[in-house]
Amino acid sequence: MTKKILISLLFLITYMTISAQSNAITASEDTTINVISWFNKNDTTEYTYKKQVMVINNDDTTRTNSIEHDFRVNVVDSTSNGYRLQYQTLSWKADNEQDSLRYGFQMAIGGDKPLVFTTNGYGQIEHLENWREIRNESMPGIMTFFDVIYAKHPGLDSIMPKRNLINLIKLGMNSEDEVKDLFPSMISLFSLHGRSFTIGLTHNDAPANGCGYPVESTTIVSYEKADTADTADTESHNGDYVIRNNATMTMSGSDTKELASTMAGVFLSEDTANKLDSIIGDSLNVPLEIRVLTDYHYFYSGWPKQIRKQTIVTLGDIMTKVTTENIEWNRYRWNEYDKDNDNGDAKSL
Predict the structure, then answer these.
(1) Do 307 and 320 touch, CB atoms closer than 8 A?
(2) Global pTM value
(3) Torsion of CA 97, 187, 228, 88, to 10 degrees
């Protein structure tokens, strides 16, 4: 049980720090590539999101979860000030019970209700129009989801009280930005829009935004020859240009221990947190390194073709967590709304 708690705390630490780490790519000067959307009303692109998590512990590798889901992004309005984008989940696959529960939680949040995001003129996401509706309508489903979990595992409430967890979730859905962050696949697609990048190699050493921990970052930006279904094999990932980034953030052992102890006090019962404090002091007084490798492939229109991200979290010599994510277009129709009767193949531009 202690080992599972420590792994869970590691996952939570990763979640809290990666949000800052992902901002390590910096703006540029001189010869640049600008990530800008040139969309038309009714443009539609469908994507497949895949995520796999591996944990390496004492040379033993375990796959903890693997998920896949399809979603559609449709431009419902285009103006001089920006776009209104409709996001809708189309399907979800999970290969084990844990991922099925994760899907249940995601569906409790958004279900099959379309989400409406607004962007500025560059395509940078600014708002989620119906975030209050999503939040209010999702709470009964979230309550039911955790009722099932805690009923299946009666001893869980003594370790991580359900009431505390529910209150934290409510607190974490108390603003538009927090609700937006619950849909990372959509945020990832447009996270670089409205930004400018130097062509070539750029090296940067600076604290991640809002984090304060040291970060080493290298960015490579270049044009590439776009490959489409008509001109390339199915393994191709080229768009018209690519932005690659390799960033590493390091936390000292004392910072890691302090953060883990704080999070244990927030998420766990008082008795369990007190018992875990001594274990954390002995086990987590080691440096934590988070390395993020990303590459973003775009068409000139601003539509992403593929986004790949690998996050490697190393906790001393205790364990390593490797998360691999991939978002890739699988079909599109621009200038005409894409209904489900499409043949399913991506077509050339």
Answers:
(1) no
(2) 0.77
(3) 60
